[in-house]
Amino acid sequence: MINNIEDLFKKKLKNIEIQPDPELWNKIQKKYKRIKIIKNSVRIASVALFIIFVASLFIIKNNAASNHSLIKQAYNIKILVNKIPVSKVNSTTPDTNKPITNNKSQFHHKIKQQEHLPDTTPILTDNYNNTVNHINTQKNDTNTYKRKFSLKVEPTEGCAPLTVNITIEGNPTHLFIDNIPRALNNNLQITLDSAGRHIIKALNPWHSDSIIINVYPQAKADFMLPVKTIVNQPITFKNISQNANTFLWDFGDGAISQDKNPSHIFTKEGIYYITLIASSKFCSDTITKIVQISKKEQYLLFPNAIIPNPAGPTGGYYTQNNMRNDIFYPVVVKKPVAEYHLKIYDRNGNLMFSSDNIKIGWDGYYKGKMVPLGVYVYIVEGRFKDGEILLQKGDILVLSRNQ
Amino acid sequence: MDKDKEIELIKLLQQGDRIAQKELFDKFAPKLLAIAYRYAGSKQEAEDILQEAFIKIFENIKKFRMEGSFEGWLRRIVINTAIIHYHKTAKYRYHQDFETIRESDISFYKDIYNEADFTWEELMKVIQSLPKGYRTVFNLYAIEGYKHKEIAKMLGIDENTSKSQYHRAKKLLRKKLLQLKKIRNDK
């Protein structure tokens, strides 16, 4: 008899046994092995990190020590730049070891300030001359393996696509352009198509050098033509150039501007060639567009020629889509007209026709007879509904239909 | 297992002996699995707990200093692993069905049981059907014998939460046991 729920569970469940799945042991073993492997690799990695740490401490210490011999250091830079054979160096420096003989190996360590990357920390390099017969192109050092090399790239910045010349002196074993290995060649010409930072890196087991090349995106000049192109009114050109920050505009009438979105007034009507040169530091692009500058905007458009109906006067009434072109009337009316006076003169100044109604045009007849073929002049005066004065002049050619 | 044999086994284990590990598994796995079973909601989860517990045992056997009971040490590792599992699924901690919270009509029922009334399998099923939070607290308090203060620390909950969860767990267990009894009587 149990009068407590805890005791019931305690007694019944405390000392029971459940047989595990026979597979479980295998699973545990596998998992344990995996964990062991991970732990070991972590241990190895941490040891390696520690070694690197100690090594870097050592380098820093050496660096501090070498500050005493600044002259020596400067001399070493000279060696690198001038590519003086090592044997010569030794003969001229009293504090280094005697000239090298082929049978003896000798080490001497130097701290070298890299010539291409003046801001980086000094890198520990050494001059190691040994007896290995290395196929060397330099005559004087056939037995000397030169570890140092120089990497020169010209130019180091420019506009895409940029062609650069890579010059390598010495013996690097690998060349990488943007981390992609390239075949080694002492003089190499490559073209960098894409804009951005490109890294050219050369290395051998003892030394590495890299140069960063900045390629700027190609500029593209473009602008939008203005909607209104009327004489004596400021016309604004909208610049839509890309990858550019300085602009030069030539408006074709002798005026220039350096504004981004310039405004210009043309004093004469005609056709102008507008040229825009858009440029950034390294790139530039040119575009030319034609713009026609016209007189004051004309709201009524008249035809410049009519063919009068030979059958007789029609009275000048017309429908808007008159295909026969036998009546002279404003073909396009852009603005409603309130007052309208059309007068047509011949070359002698005689009034041929007048109309106060925009709905009545000229049929090409004067006093019941068709006018002689030729040029006539028209004048339209009046007022638009918004109050603007209407004044348009022009000439008409009266033709006959070729039959 | 007598004491000398046990000490020998532990020493072998501390050297990382494979055969000793297998022996330890064969000897203790059934008991430890039973513990894991009480904490887990399913067989799968129980085996997961046991797996992790055994890996912990193998890795930490060097820290065992032959003081106190070895089996107790093993049990504690399984319970700790189960608690870690509890924390992993902590987002379900506050998930409770309404049914489980409702006060039921069995509050006047007196706790009188015969040991023979239920088999351990039935009790195990009842315990496993509890919500995770209740189950863990009930196991720790009623069977392992920890105090609410300790449980609260282990599970990262309030001491009062531990107490209230324990009471609710008990109520729920009573209800379920009663149902079990009724079903049997009906038969």
Report on the architecture of this protein.
With 403 residues, chain A is an alpha+beta fold. Chain A has 4 domains: 63 residues, no CATH class; 67 residues, Immunoglobulins (Immunoglobulin-like, Sandwich), CATH 2.60.40.10; 71 residues, Immunoglobulins (Immunoglobulin-like, Sandwich), CATH 2.60.40; 99 residues, Sandwich (Immunoglobulin-like), CATH 2.60.40. Chain A is elongated and about 130 Å long. The termini of chain A are far apart. Chain B has 187 residues and is mostly helical. Chain B folds into 2 domains: 86 residues, Rna Polymerase Sigma Factor, Chain: A (Orthogonal Bundle), CATH 1.10.1740; 96 residues, Arc Repressor Mutant, subunit A, CATH 1.10.10.10. Chain B is globular and about 55 Å long.
Give a quick rundown of the structure.
The complex is a heterodimer of chains A (403) and B (187). With 403 residues, chain A is an alpha+beta fold. Chain A has four helices and 27 strands.
Topology overview:
The complex is a heterodimer of chains A (403) and B (187).
Chain A: H1 5-13, H2 23-66, H3 70-82, H4 86-92, E1 106-112, E2 123-129, E3 149-154, E4 157-159, E5 162-170, E6 174-177, E7 180-182, E8 187-192, E9 196-204, E10 207-216, E11 223-224, E12 234-236, E13 238-239, E14 246-250, E15 256-257, E16 263-265, E17 270-279, E18 284-293, E19 300-301, E20 305-306, E21 332-333, E22 337-345, E23 351-355, E24 365-366, E25 369-370, E26 374-384, E27 389-398
Parallel strand pairs in A: 4-10, 20-27
Antiparallel strand pairs in A: 1-2, 3-5, 5-8, 6-7, 6-9, 9-10, 11-13, 12-16, 14-15, 14-17, 17-18, 19-21, 22-23, 22-26, 24-25, 26-27
Chain B: H1 3-14, H2 18-39, H3 43-60, H4 70-88, H5 98-101, H6 120-128, H7 132-143, H8 148-155, H9 159-186
